[in-house]
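C-alpha cells in:
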C-alpha cells in the first residue's frame, strides 16, 4: 500500500509541475513556484523515508521482539495515534523501541488486547542496537509506522 501511495504522490507531483510550467503564463508561474517547491519537498521526504526504511530492513540484523505496551498519542483529523513499545534482546542485553498505530479514537483497549504480547520481527543496526524498527507495515490488521 505504501508503494502505491508513494507512486501516486510522485505521479501527482510530476503532473502538477508539468501543468504549472506548460499552462501558466510566466507572470503567474512566480505565484505557483512555492507550491511546486513544497510539493517537490514533500515527495522528496516520502521517497527518502521509503529508501531509508527499505535499506534498514535489508541491511540490519534481525531479532524476535515482543510488544510490551500501547498508549494514546496525538489526535489529527479524527484519527488517533497510539504509541506502542517493544522489547528485543541482543547479546543478552534488553533493547527497546516504539512504533505508531493509527486508528479511530477510543480504540486503545482493543489495540492493547490485540497487540500487547504479540511477537514481532525487529531489525536493528549492528553497530548501534539502540536504533531499531519493526519489520512490516501491519500487525494483526493495524497499520504501523
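Residues out:
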Amino acid at each position: 500500500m505504501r508503494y502505491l501511495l508513494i507512486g501516486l504522490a510522485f505521479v501527482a507531483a510530476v503532473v502538477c509541475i508539468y501543468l504549472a510550467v506548460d499552462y501558466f503564463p510566466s507572470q503567474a508561474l512566480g505565484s505557483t513556484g512555492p507550491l511546486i517547491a513544497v510539493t517537490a519537498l514533500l515527495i522528496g521526504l516520502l521517497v527518502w523515508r521509503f529508501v531509508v526504511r527499505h535499506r534498514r530492513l535489508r541491511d540490519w540484523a534481525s531479532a524476535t521482539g515482543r510488544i510490551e505496551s500501547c498508549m494514546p498519542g496525538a489526535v489529527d483529523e479524527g484519527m488517533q495515534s497510539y504509541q506502542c513499545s517493544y522489547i528485543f534482546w541482543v547479546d543478552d542485553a534488553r533493547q527497546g523501541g516504539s512504533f505508531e498505530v493509527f486508528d479511530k479514537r477510543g480504540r486503545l483497549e482493543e489495540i492493547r488486547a490485540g497487540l500487547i504480547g504479540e511477537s514481532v520481527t525487529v531489525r536493528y543496526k549492528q553497530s548501534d542496537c539502540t536504533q531499531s524498527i519493526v519489520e512490516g507495515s501491519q500487525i494483526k490488521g493495524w497499520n504501523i509506522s
